[in-house]
Write a structure and sequence with these properties.
Blueprint lengths: L27 H25 L3 H17 L5 H21 L5 H10 L5 H25 L1 H6 L3 H6 L5 H9 L9 H15 L6 H26 L4 H21 L20 H20 L12 H16 L57 H18 L11 H13 L4 H7 L69 H10 L1
Length: about 500
């Protein structure tokens, strides 16, 4: 029953959609022609009564009524209400199609997990797929009028071959007042467990995969049942219907053509047929008809789902896949491009021009840059402004006070950040702590705490710090032949914070 016009619009051309306007089956004309004729007949009847039946005094009163209805009819938010409603209905309609219980994925899992070339293995596979098809038939006959007319009773389901008479007895003897579409799924699980015990399903992983795919199938059956049970709220449908009908009821009076001799505003022309009012009715009422047709796609309208076709197709394909096609493989042969370095399928004369088109490489493939913009920049030249920016940012955040000046915590934090960003050794960093421009033999407080070690001078003799703000000791000369020594700091060290590298963690301990 679905109206398919995909081939008609396969290529965009002049008047492509215009040809679709001539189709009758599934068209808006087929749905709306009765309402349109009814609206036009009522409009013409009121127009004739105004012109030939009413007295002059009655005409003046009717004209005031026309002006009143025309002024306030626009207060009804028809476009707003219809837009949200139709969007909701179309989204619901597509989700119902996605919930159709198709057996393609399940049959592939069955044919790959349930093994056996003998008659019993074949019986297992066919029965499993028959149970799945039976569950789909039971749920579709519960929600689709077309399927219910095909299988009005369980006897028809038995005669169609979806259920045996013994299975029917078990089905009817099951004491449950609810819809029993799920019963064949339970039979499926029991039969799969029996096949696992017999070794037809070789491992638990395959058994798990089979049950998972069955649960996906069963969940789709459940979603169809819930969509049929939980409708769009009735109040929403009523509001939309009342809004559309009341609007055009007001238009029946408010869009009447009045006598031009009376001098009413926007009534300079007297016509018999309201062309644009009919177009407006066609669009708004047609919009409502779209929602009316899509709100239940399991009926018998022209564009409703082909449920009986899906039942036939799934049943035939699933039986063919698990029976005749089981373990049916062609002989392995080398493909046509076995010795080719580049495998490329040929083109016909109608599509040969596609070979000349380059393959898509990405949206940035054709971007061009100036030669100077493609030169890499040295990292050394970029670190100093970055570190200075770190220092300026911290100076704006932290107030300047005791321990916060140039030689305080802030003054010591900036060199730590510089050490983190620069990939130099800890020994070379000790010499860089000396402030530039300091007099010989004196190291002022410049952000490094602890002993100052100059790589170009002899070994220093340092003293332990007396406090976080005490000046650093003066480095002493050392013999050139002796190695560099590290003077330990006083006090117990704790572990470095886990979010800092070890050099910064050691400096943080000295700052504490």
């Amino acid at each position: 029953m679905t109206v398919t016009y995909t081939a008609r619009v396969a290529k965009a051309r002049f008047g492509g959609f215009s040809k679709l306007l001539l189709l009758w089956r599934g068209s808006i004309y087929k749905l709306l022609w009765r309402e349109l004729l009814c609206f036009l007949g009522l409009f013409m009847a009121l127009s004739a009564a105004y012109r030939f039946v009413l007295t002059e005094e009655q005409k003046r009163y009717f004209e005031k009524l026309v002006l009143y209805c025309d002024r306030y009819a626009s207060l009804i938010p028809v476009s707003f209400v219809l837009g949200f409603y139709v969007t909701l209905v179309v989204h619901r309609w597509w989700n119902q199609y996605l919930s159709m219980p198709l057996t393609d994925a399940l049959m592939c899992v069955v044919v790959g997990t349930v093994h056996g070339h003998d008659e019993r293995g074949r019986l297992y596979r066919r029965t499993l797929m028959r149970y799945a098809g039976l569950s789909g038939v039971l749920i579709l006959r519960s929600v689709s009028t077309a399927v219910f007319k095909r299988f009005p009773t369980i006897d028809h389901v038995v005669e169609a071959g979806f259920m045996t008479r013994e299975e029917r007895k078990k089905f009817e003897n099951l004491n449950s007042s609810y819809n029993k579409y799920w019963v064949p799924c339970v039979w499926f699980c029991n039969l799969a467990a029996q096949a696992r015990r017999e070794g037809r399903i070789r491992d638990n992983g395959a058994f798990k995969l089979l049950l998972e795919e069955l649960n996906v199938f069963r969940s789709k059956c459940g979603m169809l049942f819930h969509y049929d049970w939980i409708s769009v709220p009735l109040v929403y449908t009523q509001v939309v219907t009342i809004a559309v009908y009341s609007y055009f009821l007001a238009c029946l009076i408010g869009r009447q053509f009045l006598d031009p001799a009376q001098g009413y505003k926007d009534h300079d022309l007297d016509l018999c047929v309201p062309i644009f009012t009919l177009l407006q009715f066609f669009f708004y009422a047609g919009w409502l008809k779209v929602a009316e047709q899509l709100i239940n796609p399991f009926g018998e309208d022209d564009d409703d789902f082909e449920t009986n076709f899906l039942i036939d197709r799934c049943f035939q394909v699933s039986m063919l896949a698990v029976d005749e096609m089981y373990d049916d493989l062609a002989m392995l042969e080398k493909d046509l491009y076995w010795d080719a370095a580049e495998a490329r399928a040929p083109y016909t004369a109608a599509t040969a021009f596609l070979m000349q088109q380059p393959s898509f490489q990405g949206s940035t493939f054709d971007i061009t840059l100036a030669k100077e913009d493609m030169q890499f920049q040295r990292q050394d030249g970029l670190e100093a402004p970055l570190n200075e920016a770190h220092g300026d940012f911290l100076q704006r955040l932290l107030p300047v006070g005791t321990g916060m000046g140039t030689g305080g915590l802030l003054g010591r934090r900036v060199p730590l950040l510089r050490r983190k960003n620069s990939h130099v050794s800890e020994e070379s960093m000790a010499a860089s702590c000396a402030c530039a421009g300091a007099p010989d033999g004196a190291v002022p407080e410049c952000g490094c705490e602890g002993p100052r070690v100059d790589l170009g001078q002899p070994e220093p003799e340092s003293e332990p710090l007396t406090g976080p703000e005490s000046p650093a000791p003066v480095p002493a000369p050392r013999a050139p032949a002796e190695p560099l020594t590290v003077v330990p700091l006083s006090g117990t060290r704790g572990p470095a914070p886990p979010w800092l590298p070890s050099p910064i963690g050691e400096e943080e301990e000295s700052l504490a």
